[in-house]
Design brief:
Elements: H1 15-29, H2 31-50, H3 63-78, H4 82-91, H5 96-146, H6 161-202, H7 219-248, H8 251-255
């Protein structure tokens, strides 16, 4: 039974199934070469994640960063990996057809990982949006109470301004953690996609050769939009922290504790 192809922006139904199928095909062709390819990729991804933006362009702050980052990923493959991989293929005594099948599937493997990271990043950013709305509502309620709004008189069992502020601080802390997670997934999405591009270019792979991956989406545009969304939410998270800090200093909030 044929599977629907997965694109960068979804729909993601079947993504995990496609990943499992891709991995199974790679292991069936050559478990040793799959382990080598995957080990190299994951080592590179881990290096980017652990670098603290020390890898050239890995902060992904603008188009210049993106170009430098992609060039870094490309260099790691063209100068340090593909010749080794070709030699491993010869040592494994794979025929050309089997070897080509493996690199095509591994390119898909990288793209599927990119799509999964993109999905995870967008989910985290959506959660931050919800957290921002929640904090906004909490702060508005606190302000209403502090301004002496008669409709906001505290009833028995109702949260005090201090308790509401504690909830707001907790939500801001969660949003900050979500932003860090989103940044990691954004970096992963760019890195995995660049790895897929490296394989596609090196082995002259037509996108129509892919069984599970569609490259119909404009990846440059959608990844750029993801970075812009991250930047906007990073600014808003800073505003949230500032607003909460400003309310913490209000005597009426302290007195309600």
């Amino acid at each position: 039974m044929s599977r629907n192809k997965i694109a960068l922006t979804g729909p993601y139904d079947g993504l995990e199934e496609a990943r499992r199928a891709c991995t199974a095909d790679l292991k069936e062709t050559s478990p040793e070469l799959y382990d080598a390819c995957n080990g190299y990729t994951e080592s590179l991804i881990a290096e980017v994640s652990a670098s603290g933006n020390a890898i050239p362009g890995s902060a992904l702050t603008d188009d210049k960063d993106l170009a430098v980052f992609r060039q870094f990923i490309k260099q790691q493959h063209t100068e340090y990996w593909f010749a080794d991989l070709n030699g491993r293929g010869s040592t494994a005594d794979l025929g050309w057809d089997a070897f080509r099948s493996l690199v095509v599937r591994y390119a898909e493997h990288a793209y599927l990982n990119a799509f999964g990271a993109y999905r995870a990043a967008t989910e985290q950013l959506s959660q931050i949006e919800r957290s921002r709305q929640e904090v906004s509502e909490l702060l508005a309620e606190i302000e209403g109470r502090l301004d002496g709004d008669s409709a906001a008189v505290i009833a028995d069992g109702e949260a005090t301004p201090q308790e509401l502020l504690t909830s707001a601080k907790r939500t801001v802390a969660t949003a900050t953690q979500q932003l860090d997670t989103a940044q990691t997934e954004i970096s992963n999405a760019h890195a995995y996609h660049a790895v897929g591009d490296c394989y596609q270019t090196e082995y002259d792979i037509e996108s129509e050769s892919f069984s599970d991956v569609s490259l119909a989406d404009d990846a440059d545009w959608f990844l750029q939009d993801l970075r812009h969304r991250r930047d906007r939410l990073r600014t808003r998270a800073r505003w949230m922290r500032n607003d909460v800090s400003a309310l913490k200093s209000r005597p009426a909030v302290r007195d309600s504790a």
